[in-house]
Every structure is written in C-alpha cells, then in structure tokens.
Design goal:
The protein is built from 16 helices and no strands. It is mainly α and about 280 residues long. The protein has a domain at about 5-70 and about 80-100: Serine Threonine Protein Phosphatase 5, Tetratricopeptide repeat, CATH 1.25.40.
Length: about 280
C-alpha cells in the first residue's frame, strides 16, 4: 500500500476521498475525488489520487486519461512526482502480469527495458529493447526505444539509423520525428524541418517540440515562425530561462530592443534565482 506522508495529507486533496481510499472504499473515494474536481478542476494532486483510485478499481485506461490531464499545462513539481510514481507502479504491475502469462513476449521485454531506463541503467535498457526488436523487428515503437537510448548516450549516428527504422514503420511517431529533427538540427537545419513539423502535428502541446522546432525555423531564417513557437513556450513555461534567452536574441536581431531587454532580464533573474537556491541548499 502507498505510504501516506504528512506532506500529502496536508495538501489540498479531498479529505473524504483520502479517508475512503485508506479504508479501501474505492467507490466512495472515486465519488469524493470527482466531486472535489468539479469544484477545483485544476487540482492536479486530487486528479492523481483519482487515478490511483481507478487503478484499484481495475480501470487503468481511465486512470491513464486522468494522469494525462494532471500532466497537461503548467504542472507543480509535487504533482509531476506523484504522477510519475503512479505511472511506474502501473507499469510494474503490468510487467509482473506479463512475466507470469507471457514471459518471452516483446511487451514483457520492453517493459523490463523501461524499468531499467527509469533507474538510469541505459545499457541494460538498451539490451532489453534490442532483444524485443530482434524477435519483432516491425513492432511499432521498438526502434524508437533503441534510438532514444542511443540518443541519450550521445551515439548519434546509430541513433539516427534506429529512429529512421521506426519512421519507416510508423512515419507519424511524434517522438521519433522529434529526435531525428534534433539530430539533424546542428548541421542540416533545412533537412530537420519536416521532422519537426510532423512532431508538432503529432504532439501540438509538447514544449520540447515547440522549442526545438523554433530553433530549426530560426536557422532557416523563418523568424516569424520561430517567434510564434517560442512565445508560446515562454507563456506556458515562464520559469524556463533558456526560452527567454532564445527570445532575447531573436528580438535583438529583429531590432525590437525593448522586448530584448525584457527577455534578457528575465533570463538573468532566473539564473540568479537558481544560483541563490543552489547556495541555500549547500
């Protein structure tokens, strides 16, 4: 059973729902959490606890949908942490079930790889993903998983080969398109654009896709498109110092000096705050 910390109990999560959950009255907990969300639809932590309740009621697809809602937009760090913890628990349960009924299936192998990836053991994750792809080479997602690990390991040429294999099977795969775009961006910006555009089409809410696609548009001299993407990122993530730096340089080059000064000051203030916070943590 999930341990209840004092911090969580003191947060704005519906007390009736928490009490019912602890007593394993999950139907009552669901009703209480849904009632609380009607009053406070932006309460991400309550939505995570609703998802926990749905898992206990064996309604995982609904739980996943609630987690997606909780992770949309500006998400508090504690909500992101709890949502990630629940997603890992769900995957662990699914893996245990698969290893019982189909231990050699590609799904079981991929889930084992994901478990290694979560713990930072990229080499072990890569071995599992390669094993899954070896027996089911055309399985959607198999080559993306391999390519993404290689991308994380900075093995760029090999990553590009695997990601293009994925796109041959699944050409609209958002993350595979994004990673290929990032790999091509440094010295082949024009070539990277179609990949970023497919990534944006598949994942229009992705902050990473919008930021990286903006870089490609900027390199290609398409400043208005870069500006629109970066301004949307700055609005969604005002605490992201990198986006303010990118915008500042764009505004400077466009001759918009007032906007340049605003953005560069935001960038400097965020960096200073980070240094102060780091100093207090020592």
């Amino acid at each position: 059973m999930v341990a209840f910390s004092l911090v969580l109990l003191l947060m704005a999560v519906d007390a009736a729902g928490l009490t019912a959950w602890r007593e394993r009255r999950f139907d009552a907990a669901e009703a209480a959490f849904r009632s609380a969300l009607r009053r406070r639809p932006a309460d991400g932590m309550t939505r995570v606890w609703l998802a926990r309740t749905l898992v206990e009621l064996h309604r995982n697809p609904e739980a996943t949908a609630e987690l997606q809602k909780a992770l949309t937009g500006s998400v508090a760090p504690d909500v992101r942490l709890e949502a990630g913890r629940l997603l890992r628990e769900m995957a662990e349960r699914h893996l245990a079930q698969l290893q019982t009924v189909a231990p050699d299936s590609p799904a079981a192998t991929e889930l084992a790889g994901e478990r290694y990836e979560w713990t930072g053991d990229l080499d072990a994750a890569l071995a599992e993903y390669r094993a899954a792809a070896k027996s089911h080479d055309d399985r959607p997602g198999a080559h993306y998983r391999i390519g993404n690990i290689l991308w994380l390991k900075r093995q760029t040429d090999e990553a590009l080969i695997e990601l293009r294999k994925e796109l041959a099977v699944n050409p609209q795969h958002g993350m595979a398109n994004l990673r290929v775009g990032q790999l091509l961006l440094l010295d082949r910006a024009e070539e990277s654009l179609p990949y970023f555009e497919r990534a944006l089409k598949a994942m229009p809410e992705s902050i990473e896709a919008r930021r990286e696609a903006g870089k490609a548009y900027r390199k290609a001299g398409r400043n208005s498109e870069a500006r629109a993407l970066w301004e949307s990122v700055a609005k969604a993530r005002p605490g992201d110092d990198q986006i303010h730096y990118l915008l500042a340089n764009l505004y400077r080059d466009l001759g918009e000096n007032a906007l340049f000064r605003i953005e560069i000051e935001k960038h400097r203030a965020l960096l200073e705050h980070r240094r102060e916070t780091a100093g207090q943590g020592r």
